[in-house]
Amino acid sequence: MFNKEEGVHLVSPEQLNEFLNGRKTVFSPKCSACVEYGKITGEAVCVISVTDWVADPGKMWRDAEQALTLIWLLSWTSHGMCHSSPGRPRLTRCRSPEKETFTCWWEPGSTGGLPTSYHLYYRKESSLEVFECPDYHKAGNNSCYFDKRHTSIWIIYNITVVASNALGKAYSESVEVDVMDIVQPHPPENVNLTFIQTKNSPYFLVRWQPPHDADTRSGWVTIKYEVRLKIENSGDEEDSSWESYSAGKQLEFSIYSPQPGANYIVQVRCKLDHGLWSEWSPSAFIRIPDNMSDTQNEVMIIAVTLTAIIFLLTAGVLTVTIKPVKHFLLPPVPEPKISGLDSQLLKSGKSEEIFSALITPGYPQIAQSSDRQVEYLVVSDYDEEMDFDDKAHLESQKGGNRSTDNAQKISQNSIKVSLNNGQDLKTILSEHVHARTISNQLSATSRVLGEPQELLHLNCNGSPVKAQDQNTQMSSSSNCEHASINPAGFTEYVEVDEDQKPQVREDYSMVSDVISDNILVLQDSIPVQGHKEVKCDKTSEAEEMGGVFEPLGYLETLTTFSSES
Amino acid sequence: MSRSLKQVAVLLVALLCLDPHGRVGSAPICAHGPSGCHIPSLADLFDRVIQHSARMHSLSNDLHSEFEQYFLPSKNHIGKIYRKCHTSNILTPNGKENAQKLAREELTEVILKLLMAWRDPLFQLHQSMAHQQDFNSFSSNKALEMGDMAHELRKGVEKVAEKMRVLGMLGNSVTGLSAAEAMLPLSDSGEAMSDYELLYCFRRDSNKVQNYLKILKCRIVPEHDC
Fold it and tell me: How many CB pairs under 8 A join A and B?
């Protein structure tokens, strides 16, 4: 279409398109707009705009970065301006499949428009001699294959690729390679799958061959394998993910309990010693038949149903006979039981019943002998210094309720205050009238304590004791309590006997302290100063008492009672 | 009654002391033949030694890549190891055929030479790693373990060689290695090698040892795994 003469040609756009059809465009620095380069003829076309050319042709040469409507056809020979030296090639990778040979591949750079040839040169470690690649073709284009003769393990190769064309050369970056580091075998071969149907444990067997070039017979390399498989889902769902299994050095692998009816995809790969893993082998497929599941399902259903029936029956039987079974299997642990103390009563909250239950006949054994002397306290209502260092405790005996009350002499509703001189005495008086509960508690404790050795019997004859006086509310009681201070050698207790019917409401406002379960400290309005006063009616009997005790409103536990006297 | 008991006890003690057979002595464990214990065969010994060398190489691999990862991020390969390893003077076969061409005795001797040559340098390596704070103690422990392994491996290979000699598989040309000992890890220029260079060289040499042992085993006891 065009004259192949050098020079400037004016062409129409259609002709330009026709010319450009199939031609490659290369930018050439000599002609800065664009250059069409015909591969076969070596033509180059420089296209500039008409207007520029018309206006100033010279300018076009100086400044040729305009768009194109005009074609300049220039023909260059092979040494023309728009060719260039090649771009730098690049070594992409080197691999050794069996640790005896290796191959290196490179990627060419730009060719610069000219036929380019590539050469690979290498040097061995610490030697200056340069060698060229022994085989450019065995491994394909742009590769170099080192055969066994030319391969040395444990030596560093310094490899360079040179691209050269008519205009120049380009050197790739040098790469240092030790064959030990680039070992990557070919994938295993001939992977085949077989389904083995055994009764109890069906499985399928994966078998393969090692890559043909790896030499394990001489022990040069040791191959390790890895198997992976996944279930192929034909539906819309995604495939399940791969499961990998290490298979060691063996050439087969069993997959147990495959899913019936599933399609499996299996692949195997290998590696040599500490090298790189090979590519995965081509996939192998297997379909698991699913007729084996039917019979199994039936059996399973029957078994499950039977089990359920048996379970329900057992549960029913057990619920009926739970108690004896439970007793048989888990005998009840004997609980600590205080004879007479019933837990049911405790729950009911009626304390008097509880403690009445605790009182067994014969306890406390007070004054077994009837000829036991009972000392009497002289009770006077003057502020007599009492010896209150003595310990004493009050005990009272409950009247009436105790059928085996040995202290016959002691009338009902008596408070016995027994005093042992020389003992430390803490205040012991109880606000007996205070509550039946107190008295009951106290009477309950009387069981626990031992027999008082001495009894002082204080008898207030029908007159309320001071405690009663203290508490106006209680003063209505016409009963006189007898307080006995018991110098027994046990932990003291205060026992207050009370008439059957409490004359007063239970008033706890006087309680200043609770020392134990059954002892309350009642705060007297008069601070305790060691005075013990019992204000009774000034009867003779009352005065006989030592009155060594504190206001009856004040009750306190006694510490251990020493028996010294 | 107690007196008679005492007498009996005294008599027993006297018997034990006087009777030479009653004394406790040390006897070799396997003195009573194969029923006593399992004497490893040559194949077993080889297996053990090869496993040991595999572990040693894997340890050196780990250390080397750790070092490379943390201390040489620039991956400047050029001029990396153009210094010689101190074991370069030992002539080692550089491929499978060369290794197979060597006689058993020579191959065994090469292995032993290599292992011997690393005795001191590994100790030095551990010392220098332990003193630097850059390495954590885990790395310097690995270096110590590596040195121990090399030592044990050498002992193991010596035992294998001994067994082979006993079985008549080896000629007597495997000499003592005192001549090859005490090789200082100096590079060409005479400077001491750096830790990285030592690690690189040991990684390479441990790979060599592993490969040579495997070749030797499959040549001598090719029954299984070959």
Answer: 62
